[in-house]
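for the writeup, i need someone to sanity check this before i put it in the appendix. the sequnce is what the collaborator sent (i think, or maybe the updated version? ugh). structure was predicted straight from it, no edits. if anything looks off just tell me and ill rerun, i have time this weekend
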Amino acid sequence: MKKRVVAERRSDCPLNATLEVLGDRWSLLIVRDLLFKGRTMYKDFLAGGEGIATNVLANRLRRLEAEGVIEKGRDAADARRLVYRLTTKGLTLAPVLVEMIVWGARHYQTAAPPATIREMTKHRERFLADIRSRA
């Protein structure tokens, strides 16, 4: 019998509901990879550099899919390959991730290119429109 991937919510608080879906170490990094880095395949996420274990990645992908944040489908270029895409619901996380990236770049030394951070802050709507058009 398959384990239930979507858990019951601990409370009716919207922040709690969000954290139950995205509050672990890996889920937002998967969304980041889909939004900003063009990673769409399982092997791409594994090669991401943060060192996610295969079992953890498989679990997070299943959870994000069950929650309607991502969807899995066949690659248009090669139907033998599975690819992941953000759903409309997942795409609505773009502004949240932009703000988190900008916050992190302001408060910590990161590898984020300063030009990208400037673009995110000075031309936020244009940056987000560009991200959405590529998704």
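Residues 25 and 52 are 10 Å apart (CA to CA). The chain is about 55% helix and 5% strand.
thx in advance!!
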